[in-house]
Q: What sequence folds into this?
């Protein structure tokens, strides 16, 4: 959590109209204060402001939208695209009409460029006094800044607005599109709270949007950047995951894999509230091994979620049929949820929110991320991947969830290169490798790390069969399997695991 002093517990909050932003602010805004939403054009300020007003309409309040930059028709179009109705929202236009007004018609639309700043603010005051709203949006300050012509006059007018609105018992949201050449920090000092919205263009994929609460007097809020998207229905904000805020008691019992030999290799199994990293070359069997845990959880009546960054549902279903795993049955029953993720379209914050929803609403007990290579593609910087993965794994551990991470190494045989070293975050690490012997390519498996208890230190051969994963005895007469140069020192080359 970040920022200011504790907010008074006896002061009721005003909802922002966004559940995500209310969560970031610990309940919403303090009433009868003036707030600033700032961001470049296209970041979602108008949409978020309309959500603020529509929440007021929903609660039976009188609300007012003062527009110095957009017409009623433009606002109606925004609302229509989101499936909203602006009925109940009073809109006061101070922009020129799109068509020539009839001279005989009552003039209700004004052009700011043709009047003095004081006249503009007086018109605003009169309309507020006439309607007496409890929620007000002023869009936008850029026009007032142009009319003021100098910073001192502009600051005085904004202060006059603040004092006027305070006496009216109104909660006010000012919008600013940051059209000034430099950051207008004087606005920050005047406003009770400031929320900044950003739109980021990345080299490939859809644009990313995020917001940050810069200040909020008297309110403890969750600091840092929070991803959000604009979809039909408004802004969907994904509060940054802070694991320290989520604690749940659970029994740290073993989570069985459905394979007795694999559980024995792991010293009894993987414990709840831990995470395991399956690492190895492409196609060696990491995803198949992870899938067995999802099926085993479903067989126990638990819920498992499989997030696939690299493979489609058809590929995973075909693999399950080859291994004799009843994946389709558990997908139909809902015990296993398969979600294919497009890393070019999904922000890290949205993915974390998806995981949280799976755990807290669907009660998932096993979460599989396949793979971290694909997840890395969704991140703008590798440093952020490690930090966010640390927070996500800590959260899942505190919820008693078994998390399985799949990481593909570069190469197939010989020396291997790991694109990302995340093993220090893992409670258990299972190494899977190809090795060549007697003119055939085989697979080996070993538990190289397990924080939570004892485990076998042997390297075992395994095979993917129609009855699942089959493990063979320890490869005692082999050396150099994981270094990429295996040598057999026995008398006769052993057969692989039995059918």
A:
């Amino acid at each position: 959590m970040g920022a200011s002093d504790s907010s008074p517990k006896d002061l009721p909050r005003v909802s922002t109209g966004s559940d995500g932003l209310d969560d970031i602010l610990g309940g919403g805004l303090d009433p009868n204060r003036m707030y600033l939403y700032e961001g470049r054009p296209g970041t979602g300020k108008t949409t978020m402001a309309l959500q603020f007003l529509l929440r007021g309409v929903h609660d039976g309040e009188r609300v007012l939208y003062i527009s110095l930059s957009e017409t009623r028709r433009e606002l109606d179009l925004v609302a229509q695209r989101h499936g909203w109705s602006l009925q109940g929202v009073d809109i006061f236009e101070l922009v020129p009409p799109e068509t020539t007004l009839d001279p005989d018609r009552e003039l209700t639309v004004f052009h700011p460029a043709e009047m003095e700043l004081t006249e503009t603010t007086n018109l605003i005051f009169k309309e507020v006094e006439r309607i007496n709203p409890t929620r007000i949006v002023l869009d936008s300050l850029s026009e007032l800044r142009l009319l003021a012509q100098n910073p001192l006059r502009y600051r005085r007018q904004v202060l006059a607005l603040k004092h006027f609105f305070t006496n009216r018992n109104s909660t006010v949201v000012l919008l600013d599109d940051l059209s000034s050449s430099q950051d207008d920090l004087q606005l920050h000092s005047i406003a009770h709270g400031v929320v900044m919205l950003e739109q980021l263009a990345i080299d490939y994929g859809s644009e990313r949007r995020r917001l940050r609460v810069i200040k909020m007097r008297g309110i403890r809020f969750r600091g840092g950047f929070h991803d959000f998207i604009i979809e039909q229905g408004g802004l969907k904000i994904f509060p940054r995951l802070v694991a320290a805020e989520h604690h749940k008691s659970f029994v740290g019992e073993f989570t069985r894999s459905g394979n007795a030999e694999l559980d024995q290799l792991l010293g009894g199994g993987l414990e709840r509230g831990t995470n395991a990293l399956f690492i190895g070359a492409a196609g060696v069997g990491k995803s198949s091994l992870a899938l067995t845990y999802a099926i085993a959880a479903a067989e126990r009546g638990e819920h498992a979620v499989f997030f696939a960054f690299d493979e489609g549902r058809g590929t995973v279903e075909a693999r399950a049929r080859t291994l004799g795993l009843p994946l389709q049955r558990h997908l139909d029953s809902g015990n296993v949820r398969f979600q294919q993720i497009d890393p070019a379209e999904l922000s890290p914050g949205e993915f974390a929110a998806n995981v949280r929803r799976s755990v807290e609403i669907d009660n998932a007990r096993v979460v599989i991320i396949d793979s971290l290579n694909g997840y890395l593609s969704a991140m703008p910087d590798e440093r952020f991947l490690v930090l966010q993965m640390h927070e996500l794994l800590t959260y899942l551990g505190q919820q008693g969830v078994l998390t399985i991470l799949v990481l593909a190494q570069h190469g197939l045989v010989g020396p291997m290169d790991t694109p990302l070293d995340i093993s220090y975050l893992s409670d258990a690490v299972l190494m899977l490798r190809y090795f060549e012997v007697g003119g055939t390519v085989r697979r080996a498996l070993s538990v190289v790390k397990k924080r939570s208890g004892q485990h076998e230190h042997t390297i075992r051969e395994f095979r993917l069969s129609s009855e699942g994963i089959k493990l063979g005895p320890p490869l005692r007469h082999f050396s150099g399997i994981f270094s990429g140069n295996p040598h057999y020192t026995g008398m006769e080359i052993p057969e692989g695991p039995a059918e």
Remarks:
- The first helix runs from residue 19 to 24.
- The chain has 14 helices and 24 strands.
- The domain at 2-240 is CATH 3.40.50.300 (Rossmann fold).
- The chain has two domains: 2-240, 245-488.
